Amino acid sequence: MYPFGREEAASLERLFWFFSECVQRGDWELAQACVPQLRQLQDDGSEKVEKILHALIICPSRLRSESKHSPQKLAWFWFLVLKEWLSHKQKTVPAALQRETEFLLLLEELEKDVPFVVLKELYEAFEDNHLLHRKQRDGSVQKFGVEVMSTLQKMLLQAPRKLQSILELLQRDPVECSSSVVQSGLPQNVFVGFLWDSLKSLKRLQLNPELLEREGNKVADEIYNAMSMLNLKMDNQTRELRLLCRELLDACWFEQSPLREERLLSCMLRKGSHALLSLFGSVFIEKMKEKLLSQKSPGKGTPEHPDAEWIVMALFLDHEQAYSWKAAYFYYLSSNKHFLEQILITALTLLKREDFSSLSRLLTQEFSYLSRLLILLGWTQCCSLESAKMLLETLHKSQGFYNDSVLKDFCDGLCAQVEVLEWCIQQNSNCIPENILLQHLHSLECHSSLYLLYQLTDLLALNEEAVIELFQKTSTKYTEVQGKIYNCK
């Protein structure tokens, strides 16, 4: 009988019947083509379609399929259809359903290469973490058997991304266990176990140079893969992990080791987390401190020359540039001070000790831009006129122009004032007390040259032409120097 007045509804009913027939026959592409139109079904009809899609995902093994369609691939096929269906209703696929579908698909892809008992144990671990009732879990970290660990270790070299996906899917729901994916422990424990086993293998190979040359690169690649997938949170840095980092560093520093520190560092870089790199850096600094401080003589390490400043000088004065910057990066990553702040503090320490040779070596290349700033910060630390002249000679007169015109003008003024101060001392028949001299030296930027003449000489007794010549000489001299530097740039 023709459905007068309800043609559209009848058409949708026939389409739903045809969709059901296609599912029963295994015509998956044809059944999928019906789904977009079935979105127009109302109430019960829409719910029926959604339940069918759920059933297709949950029980794919009962579906008819051609040889090219495996059960879990069919489940994934219908999962994508369900995902699109729900998106039009402003809904999302349940996380548990997506996680189980992805995990079973991964296990199916491993069937050809992995023994059944291993796949079974992996699925049991998944069940324990996700499918059992929350009260049935004891909260312990999953531990695998020897055969499973051996299989996972092979995957680390052959299919590292699949291994990472499996271990991440095995994690308990963060909402249920109140922790992030990596905090629940399984991937971290597995990868840490791999690293310890690999380090033991590397140590055994080191006893036999021929074996080391033949198999060392394979073990090194295994370590790189494990490190690239090991994730870490700041509050999950255990003593075992610190010990592991020390062993990794020792392995890198071993002569003829196939393990390269630079590549190991690149494996630790994470877009969203610096925890692993920070941990490795703090361990690196511990070992570096032990090495550098062991080289100190018994008389060093006093309060005026503390360990932090000794380390900075040892790094930037006695090592090549690449090593210095790498060590400095880790040192300041694990401390609370900015590296420029510590460089300036160390430079001020050298200035106080009047060690201008070391100061000049420290403030070279990248740090030369700090030279005139250090004069401004450390001027009051000069203990004599000669010390002030040496400071200006080392950090100003011998330096180029670094787009620091304000600081350069300030230092030019200090140079002129120092010459005036020295001239005043020469003209004064009486010996000027040291405290008075230092008072004027430290406040040169606050007063004019005429003020110095008035305070330190008998102004009326001075030769007028000599005074004018002094002022003209200092003014002309530094104008010429300034012009030469600007022209050079």
UniProtKB/TrEMBL annotation:
Gene Ontology annotations for the cellular component aspect, listed alphabetically: centrosome; lysosomal membrane; midbody
Single GO MF annotation: phosphatidylinositol-3-phosphate binding
Descriptive protein name: Zinc finger FYVE-type containing 26
InterPro entries on file: ZFYVE26
Provenance organism: Naja naja (Indian cobra)
GO BP of this protein: double-strand break repair via homologous recombination; mitotic cytokinesis; regulation of cytokinesis
Source taxon at top rank: Eukaryota
Spans through the membrane: none
